[in-house]
Every structure is written in structure tokens, then in C-alpha cells.
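Give me C-alpha cells for this 136-residue protein.
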Amino acid sequence: MFEPNAAENYRLRMHRARSVILTDEELVEIRAAQRTFEGAYIRTALGQFSFALVILKIFTSEFYSIGALFALYGTGILITSLLRRQQGNKQFFSETGEDGLHQKKFRTSGNVVVVLTALSVAAYATLLILTLQLGD
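Here you go.
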């Protein structure tokens, strides 16, 4: 996605990612990761975009900043989901370590959780400030 020729660079059992034939267990693992990570992030981002659209269409112009905030929040979640997808592809398809030995390295999504937590705290703190300014 972000890398040129990613299908050529990722390998599984010494095959390029675009030409490998996956086992049933590997297909289940990939589909579960896509449902869990990609689907959840995309659904959350779409929900934020929908809520922003509702705010922008229904409420008066004094609420536009709140609608824009939710649109930006959805964009941040969407970008985070793209980064998580890239990490997942690297994790699944790259078997060769830096030392040349064949090994799979499991990496938790802790850094994505930290990014999403910081994004959410910043968005809701800004929402609180914007809500308090509505009365002025």
C-alpha cells in the first residue's frame, strides 16, 4: 500500500506474496485479522464521518467546528487503519529475519493503541473545549 512493489517484497515460504498459495489455516488467520483490525477501524471512521455529516447538515453554523472535528477524527482513524494494515501484511508475509534465518516475528498492536488513545483524548478534549465555547 505505502511501499512500491509490496507484493514482490513480502514473502511466505520463499514465495512472493502475490504468487503464494495459502493453506486453510493461513486464510482463516488473514481473514480474522482483516475483520478485526481493518473492519473495525473502517467502521469507526465511517461512523465518525457520518456523525460529522449529520452535525454539518442539521445544526446551525455555530456547530460547524464540532462537525469538522469529527471529520478530522475519522480521518485520523482511517490513516491509523492504513498503517495497521501495512504492519499486519509485514507481520504475516515476512518470515526472514535480519540475521537471514526463517522466523515469524509476532508484533502486538500496542503502538497503534497508543496512537488511537492519544488521538481520541485529543479529539474529546477539543470537543469539550468547543462545547464549552458554545455558550459564549
